[in-house]
Amino acid sequence: MYGITKDTQEVKVFPPMPTGINENIILDDVFMKEINDSDVLCYRFVNPAGSYLEHLMFPVDKDRTMRFYEDFPKTHSLNNKAHGFVKGEPIKPRDGYIIELDNFNSFNKHIVSKFAMEDEIIESQKDVSSYKEFCQSIINLIEGKEHKKVKLRLLVILNNKDYTTLPKYPPFIELQTDGPTSLKINTKYHKLKPDAVANDDPHTVAQESSFDNTAGFDYNDEPKF
């Protein structure tokens, strides 16, 4: 109903986090955010001015990933003994799915490793087999740390829709130190200036894969090779 009371709050709107290397950032929260009736892992970073960036980590859709690598053939750029990949050989659809899972895991490890040691991260993942279990293990691990007291540097760029986001590949985050940053801006891959005016919510973006991987997923799907 209409009417101003003591409970009426003024709405504060903060601009998106600036592009480039941001300092004194905190990981404000890690949680499951409802997107299209499904829960998606979300990292929420905040700067001292109150601007924030929410980065969504959608699960890797096995069928869509394999179709992509079948429709758009690629070759392996590196040797990978663990998976038996050979540089220069065609990427099979099943291999493409494994690559995207590796990218997903690497991206999350890059963030979580700023708050926990590697052995602790691995231990937290020992019983994980599904996306939902993975997300909960990440949330539990971060919530057990004083993450809001950890100051970070964060590399923020724009995606192809001019929304602020994190780079697809590490490194993009590091602990705040007195020394110079080790983060690098590569203008060939890191877009810092918009081409157009963005609309909708400029704060929240999805993790980009080699293709659009943000629709039609089953977040309980277990990665089976």
Walk me through this protein's architecture.
The protein is of the alpha+beta class. The chain is 22% helix and 20% strand. It has four helices and seven strands. The protein has helices spanning 62-71, 93-112, 118-124, 131-143, and strands spanning 20-35, 38-46, 52-57, 152-158, 164-165, 173-175, 204-206. Strands 1, 2, 3, 4, 5, 6 and 7 form a seven-stranded mixed beta sheet that branches.
Blueprint of the fold:
Elements: E1 20-35, E2 38-46, E3 52-57, H1 62-71, H2 93-112, H3 118-124, H4 131-143, E4 152-158, E5 164-165, E6 173-175, E7 204-206
Parallel strand pairs: 3-7
Antiparallel strand pairs: 1-2, 1-4, 2-3, 4-5, 4-6
Helix pairs in contact: 1-2
The count of domains is 1
What are the secondary-structure elements, in order, as H or E?
A: EEEHHHHEEEE
| Number of DSSP helical runs | 4
Indicate the radius of gyration in whole angstroms. 19 Å
**Percentage of β-strand residues:** 15-25%
Provide mean pLDDT, rounded: 87
Largest sheet: 7 strands, mixed
Number of strands: 7
Question: Segments where pLDDT lies below 50 for 5+ residues?
Answer: 209-225
Beginning-to-end CA distance, first to last residue: 55 Å
What portion of residues is helical? Answer: 10-25%
| SS-derived structural category | alpha+beta
- Any idea what the shape is? globular
